[in-house]
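User: Hey, quick favor. My workstation is busy. Could you predict this chain's structure for me?
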Amino acid sequence: MEVLMKVYLVLLSAVLAGCVSAQSRMAKDIEVEKAACRSQNFSKKVPLARCINAAEAKAASVYPADLLQLRLASRMVIAEKQDKGQLTDAEAELEYAKVGAQIGSQEATRNSNDAMAAAAYQMTRPRTCVRIGNGINCF
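Assistant: No problem, here it is.
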């Protein structure tokens, strides 16, 4: 699960990088709650997954809802399979890493599309030019 946590932290950090103070506090609070979940030593994986999901659900205000839902639902499906003996811990880590990669790829695509749209707007937006002395200032 440590690999999964690192993947999640990297993704969460990328999302929260824009607004450092409030979002940074939120990320720390979420990590504290997740650590509290892990310290409870649940006998099954589903209760642990529910506990971690409850902590991560608090990121809903700053994280794309569809990607957060994918992360939370995937964690539950993987935990259920582990509890049924259908997945080993190593296989579960692999499955969750695949989900993390899928989510990371989707975030990167969205960020790239947003950057391209912003650049296109900058190139095509109306400009106002003012003559000042011998020069012209456009904004």
